[in-house]
């Protein structure tokens, strides 16, 4: 289980960001910028992932929902 809250600044990821890969994951962005080549949400059938965009910017080449429960 993982939780990331971004409330200002910037987080630059060169490759991919997994939100809920083998378990539960949540990314909440309320201010600032998160950049990644790919954002994978709920990649596996046993995973749950949530991306909450309350403000700021999510910059991604791709956002992919996998086989799990993603939102």
Summarize the structure.
By secondary structure, the chain is mainly beta. It has strands at 2-19, 24-41, 48-53, 57-65, 69-70. It is built from no helices and five strands.
Fold blueprint:
Blueprint: E1 2-19, E2 24-41, E3 48-53, E4 57-65, E5 69-70
Number of helices: 0
Gyration radius over CA: 11 Å
- Give the termini separation: 16 Å
**Per DSSP, what share of the residues sits in E-state strands of 2 or more residues?**
over 45%
Shape: globular
Order of helices and strands: EEEEE
Uncertain segments are none
Which class best fits the helix and strand makeup? mainly beta
Find the count of extended strands (DSSP E, 2+ residues).
5
Summed over residues and divided by their number, the pLDDT gives a mean of: 94
Q: Helix coverage percent of residues?
A: under 10%
Describe the protein in words.
The chain is mainly beta. The protein is 0% helix and 75% strand. It is globular, with a radius of gyration of 11 Å. The mean pLDDT is 94. It has no helices and 5 strands. The chain has strands spanning 2-19, 24-41, 48-53, 57-65, 69-70. Strands 1, 2, 3, 4 and 5 form a 5-stranded parallel beta sheet that branches.
Question: Which descriptors apply to this entry?
Answer:
71 residues, mainly beta, five-stranded parallel beta sheet, 0% helix, globular
């Amino acid at each position: 289980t993982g939780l990331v809250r971004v409330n200002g600044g910037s987080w630059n990821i060169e490759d991919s960001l997994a939100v809920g890969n083998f378990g539960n994951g949540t990314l909440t962005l309320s201010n600032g910028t998160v950049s990644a080549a790919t954002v994978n949400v709920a990649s596996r059938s046993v995973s749950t992932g949530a991306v909450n965009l309350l403000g700021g910017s999510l910059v991604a080449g791709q956002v992919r929902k996998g086989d799990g429960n993603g939102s």
